[in-house]
Write a structure and sequence with these properties.
The chain is mostly helical. The chain has one domain (2-237). It starts with a helix and ends with a helix. The protein is built from nine helices and no strands. The relative contact order is 0.14. It is elongated.
Length: 239
Amino acid sequence: MLRELLGEQPRQDSGALLQAMNSMKRTLSLLQRQMEQSGDPTFDFRKAEILTRGLSTSLDELEQSAYAAAFFRKKVCANFSEEMTAEEQEDYARYVYFYKNGFIRVFALLDKLGNLLNDFYDMNTSKVKAHYSYFTVLRQFRYLKIHDKLADRLFELKDGFRDPLNRLRKRRNTEVHYMNVEMQDDLWQKQRALYGKIKLEDLDEHLDDLQQGLDMVCRSIAAAFDYTNQQWERRSTGQ
């Protein structure tokens, strides 16, 4: 959708994004088959279908936000706030909007994945923590000592992307609970320069963190759904 608004060609999924989308499509196919066979009297399969479709939509929105942030970043050439033209200021504002939208969505999407895994595997994580996060669900896998293969892979991804995720989390928390992240950057630069010009934050470094966050999300989704698909397929064939 955003690509069309920006005059770009439609996205062609590839890499980790394609793997994540395909794994969820496979899940939806399996759920549809189960609903046709059983009639789904408890609506459990329908609920799982809705959660999966919602996750797929959220991933699409996250990727679009990251793409749009990078698109508008390319239009910002100045290194200092005072040197930006009026047009650059507008493009910078658009970059900030989509960048913030992106890093907030990274953690919202992970929490949706955690909620889905909690439902899929009857983990009752809410008994441990009423308002739990994706990372609480990961710890619950270890506490319950279930599905070690899946848990090991998800922990491996969490640890492998620890640094960019920590930076994104810090900026998310600042944005949500404290102040606008771009204003925090201005304050930090002002403190360094005192009465000098305010240098822009490292836009490319921030975008790289966002891209890595997107990559981590894609790989985690693919790992979770590929494992779940295998479990369901084995169960349906009695293996």
